[in-house]
Amino acid sequence: MQPVFRFAPSPNGHLHLGHAFSALLNAEAAQAVGGRFLVRVEDIDQARCTPELVQDALDDLRWLGLSWEEPVLRQSTRFLAYAAALDQLWSRGLLYACACTRRDIEADAITRARGAPPPRDPDGALIYSGRCRSWVRGPMPPLGLGVALRLDMARALEGVTLPLTWHDADAGVQAADPARWGDVVLARKDTPTSYHLAVVLDDAFQGVTDVVRGKDLFAATEIHRLLQVLLGLPEPSYRHHPLITDADGHKLAKSRFSTPLRSLRAEGVMPEAIRASLGFAL
After folding, report:
1. Residue ranges, CATH 3.40.50.620, the chain
2. Superfamily of domain 1-77+245-282
3. Which one in 80, 156, 158, 260 has a CA-CA gap of 20 to 30 Å to 58?
């Protein structure tokens, strides 16, 4: 089987050096083993991922000297596939509707903690209390219209052979513990899917064999492995690379207003200089 690698940015802002590093790493890894290199646009957030930002992202990647197979898959064209997977999980009793607000979740977490620090998932978000878990499970509600769909983690794990593991090229075999994430959202209130569901389905759809991404997604692989098992999808190999950080040691991020590649281009920085600064051959 020919290896398949992908770089999948979410163009809700302009790409920065962290994106460049991950894209170049995937392209280099694919070339080293005679594999395929894909670019996928993760634009499920259609309010923030505008057509202009999508085009800018592709332009930046071409400026870096990258090329990939066409056509580029856009997640916004895959909502029917995500809905089908959600319907499958719903029919098995593994999802429930949740109308809780952020304030509800915070209040429940504080009450349950009884003065202790409230439990949080590996990303630092509060663990959901399960307030809506007891709702009567009728037909699946319309997606993206104000009600989220959560995975009933306890029920989901009942049908999974444990221990659940995955392999990281750098860290070796890992024991996954999805339960520490609580009842994760698989369809958001304003969007008919979630990152976790979409990325798992799209990697399988595109035949991705090697997922190379930042260490900030290391723990999220626990959820992805569980979804792969629940939906009967293949397990890719994983590698979680170090993150590019700023002078203060924080990872580069659009939310921190990290310098975009486009700004560096406007300042006259050449793509060869970017590649060299990130440790890639010219």
Report:
1. 1-77+245-282, 78-203+218-228
2. HUPs (3.40.50.620)
3. 80
pLDDT tens digits, residue range 87-99?
999 999 999 999 9
Return the SS3 of 203: helix
Cα R_g (the chain), whole angstroms? 20
Residues 187 and 133: their CA atoms lie apart, in Å, by 15
Q: Is the pLDDT of residue 231 over 70?
A: yes
**Mean pLDDT within 252-256:** 64
Look-up: residue for tokens 């990325």?
A: 199
pTM over the 0.90 mark? yes
- The fourth-level CATH superfamily of domain 78-203+218-228 is HUPs (3.40.50.620)
Model pLDDT, residue 113: 78
Catalytic residues: 254
